[in-house]
Write a structure and sequence with these properties.
Layout (H helix, E strand, L loop, with lengths): L1 H114 L2 E5 L2 E5 L1 H15 L3 H14 L6 H14 L3 H14 L6 H14 L3 H14 L4 H9 L5
Antiparallel strand pairs: 1-2
Helix pairs in contact: 2-3, 3-4, 4-5, 5-6, 6-7, 6-8, 7-8
C-alpha cells in the first residue's frame, strides 16, 4: 500500500513537475504584459507630467510676457498722458502767446495811428498833417478862442517856427497876426499878415488879411499905405465882405 502510494504520489509529483513549466510560462507571460502595460502607463504618465510641466512652464512664461506687456502698456499710457498734458499745456501757452501778440499788435497799431498822418480841412483847404502837428495847432487855437491873446501869440509863434512847411501855416499866420494885433504888437502883426499873403495869396482868408493889414497900417499912422492896401483889396477880391468893408473905409482915409 505504501508502495502504491509512493507510486501514485510520485506519479502525481511528476505530473505536477511536468505541469509546472507550463504554468510558470503562463504566469510569466501574464507578468510581461502587465509589466508592459505598467511601463506604458508609466511612460504615458511621465509624458503627461512632462506636458503638464511644459504647459505650466509655458503658462509661467506667458504670464511673465503678459505682465511685461501690461507694464509696457502702463508705461506707454503714462507717457501718452504726460504727452497729452504737455500738448494741452503747449496749446494753452500758444493761445496765451497769441492773445498777448494780438494785444501787443493792437497797442502798436494804436500807437502807430497816433503818429500816422491825417487829413484835415481848414479854411476850405484839405491837406495832410501829422498827429502832433494837429494837436499843437488845435491847442493854440483853443487858447486864442479863450481870448488869451498873449498866450495865443506865443503858442502860434512856436507852431509857425516848428512846422514851417505845414498845411496849417497860412491859417496859423493869419491868427498869429490877429493875436499880435490884439496885444498891440503892430509891427509883428504886419509882418505876419504879409507873410501869410505872400505864402498863399488866394487863401480863403486873404481878403480878411488885407483888411487887417490896412488896420495895422492905420495904427502905425501910415494912412497912405492903408489906402493903397484897401484899393488892392477891392481890386483883388471885389465880391468879398472885406472888399465891401474897404469901400466903406476908403472915404474916411485922407
Amino acid at each position: 500500500m505504501r508502495v502504491e502510494f509512493k507510486r501514485h504520489g510520485l506519479a502525481g509529483l511528476l505530473a505536477l513537475i511536468m505541469l509546472a513549466p507550463g504554468m510558470a510560462q503562463a504566469a510569466l507571460f501574464q507578468d510581461d504584459e502587465a509589466r508592459r502595460a505598467i511601463l506604458d502607463l508609466r511612460q504615458r504618465l511621465e509624458a503627461t507630467n512632462r506636458a503638464l510641466q511644459a504647459q505650466a512652464d509655458d503658462n509661467t512664461q506667458l504670464r511673465r510676457i503678459l505682465v511685461d506687456m501690461q507694464s509696457q502698456i502702463d508705461s506707454m499710457q503714462a507717457e501718452l498722458n504726460k504727452s497729452r498734458g504737455a500738448r494741452e499745456q503747449l496749446a494753452r501757452d500758444v493761445a496765451e502767446l497769441q492773445m498777448r501778440q494780438r494785444d501787443a499788435q493792437s497797442g502798436i497799431d494804436e500807437r502807430l495811428r497816433r503818429f500816422e498822418p491825417v487829413m484835415v480841412t481848414v479854411d476850405g483847404r484839405e491837406f495832410e498833417v501829422e498827429q502832433g502837428e494837429k494837436r499843437e495847432y488845435e491847442a493854440a487855437m483853443e487858447v486864442f478862442r479863450k481870448g488869451d491873446f498873449a498866450a495865443a501869440q506865443a503858442s502860434l509863434q512856436r507852431f509857425v517856427q516848428r512846422f514851417a512847411q505845414s498845411g496849417y501855416l497860412p491859417s496859423a499866420l493869419f491868427w498869429l497876426g490877429n493875436a499880435s494885433y490884439a496885444v498891440k504888437d503892430y509891427k509883428a502883426s504886419l509882418a505876419q499878415f504879409r507873410q501869410m499873403l505872400t505864402l498863399s495869396p488866394s487863401h480863403a482868408r486873404a481878403p480878411e488879411a488885407m483888411l487887417a493889414v490896412s488896420n495895422v497900417q492905420i495904427e502905425l499912422k501910415d494912412s497912405k499905405a492903408a489906402r493903397k492896401t484897401l484899393e488892392d483889396l477891392i481890386k483883388a477880391f471885389p465880391q468879398s465882405d472885406a472888399a465891401q468893408a474897404a469901400k466903406e473905409r476908403l472915404p474916411k482915409l485922407r
